[in-house]
């Protein structure tokens, strides 16, 4: 009989661990799952019972929530630094056993801890292929994937071998319990330009980035660029021209690595996945961004793409979007202190509306063209990460709900889904119809999630460590 040991910390993930236990019991049976010290008879030495239980287990699920790493005891000491901590003992013993498959199971939008954040005895854990159990409505989908992966592992493990007595000395076979990471990571080259305050190009250099190409059929590809993890200052400084109060307070955010669409989703890509295209600018529009799509349409595209590829595609979080847009810069635009219509598609002419004039230039930069429509993706220079059209062309939907400031915002790059105005969703990047101040890296925009306008589109991301909620 399969035996699965669920390791979790009560202060970190008691509720979701209970849900995981219930799903596994429903599939494998009660006798196949060990979850809690409540299962230990009174008076029995926990260490002896742990060793006996692990002798019978083939799989240990290490449930990791957002406070798992830094949970402290009554004296303020980090629990993982205590050699007698039960969770540490469970995982130390599991990692020592070559016949036990240890699977990190990420819950509550948690990320795997870094190697240097763990005690020496647990530093093999981040290298183990993991899984995730996201909140509803995706919990049962993730659990189905986990159960299928475990069943495959048990089937492989139970296959007869030429020398059965050697099984205990043989490492467990690998099994894919999370969305597939692109198997090959080719690179592409691109130009990055920098401008001065007047919009003159002062530097042009060649850069390189890793990418993965998703085959959508009929010769249509969707390219993703690898975005390295890092920390950045989110929001705009008080003196930035065009700044709104909702762009502050500035705060540092740590963003894990992820993959992001090289371009906004095109009409051809949307048609290939969804079987329809309601874009206004559809004439000769296959390589233009899809537009006139609501937030719900964008979510549906991500879900359908996930089904087709076995990878969890989703909309970017607002923090991921700004981090990816800036690509290490701190200026209003990734090109520098200003922008020109030679570098992006936006309204480069003045507009007077209700007595107010919205200038077609930003700062000391020049005025320019107003194309009055979208342009083909990739028509303008990329940023230092290799992403195109992050300024202008179409506004891009993000996961987050609208908050009028960053007070209390997450610092880990996750989507801000609690509080705020639950009736509104975030967009970033500006568009062909808007003036340059709206194209700044820090500029935020809001819309009802069912709104469909010809200046709204989206791009997708993939990241095994992130969760998604709709």
Descriptive report:
The chain is α/β, with parallel strands linked by helices and 470 residues long. The protein folds into two domains: 4-169, Rossmann fold; 187-462, paralog of FGE (formylglycine-generating enzyme) (Alpha-Beta Complex). The protein contains seven helices and 19 strands. The protein has helices at residues 10-28, 46-56, 86-96, 139-157, 267-274, 295-309, 318-326; strands at residues 4-7, 33-34, 59-64, 101-107, 131-133, 187-195, 201-215, 221-227, 230-234, 251-255, 258-261, 313-314, 351-353, 356-358, 395-402, 421-428, 444-447, 456-457, 461-462. A six-stranded antiparallel β-sheet has the order 6-7-8-11-19-12. A hairpin with a 2-residue loop joins strand 13 (351-353) and strand 14 (356-358). It is elongated and about 80 Å long. Mean pLDDT is 89; it is low at 164-170, 177-184 and 464-470.
Outline of this structure?
With 470 residues, this protein is α/β, with parallel strands linked by helices. It has helices at 10-28, 46-56, 86-96, 139-157, 267-274, 295-309, 318-326; strands at residues 4-7, 33-34, 59-64, 101-107, 131-133, 187-195, 201-215, 221-227, 230-234, 251-255, 258-261, 313-314, 351-353, 356-358, 395-402, 421-428, 444-447, 456-457, 461-462. Helix 2 runs parallel beside helix 3 (86-96).
Major sheet summary line: 6 strands, antiparallel
CATH topology of the largest domain: paralog of FGE (formylglycine-generating enzyme)
Radius of gyration: 25 Å
CATH superfamily of the largest domain: paralog of FGE (formylglycine-generating enzyme)
- Poorly predicted regions are 164-170, 177-184, 464-470
- Secondary structure category: alpha/beta
CATH architecture of the largest domain: Alpha-Beta Complex
- Average pLDDT, rounded to a whole number, is 89
What is the element string, with H for helices and E for strands? EHEHEHEEHEEEEEEHHEHEEEEEEE
**What is the helix content?**
10-25%
GO molecular function, one term: formylglycine-generating oxidase activity
Domain TIR: 1-147
Region (Disordered): 154-182
Pfam family, one: TIR_2
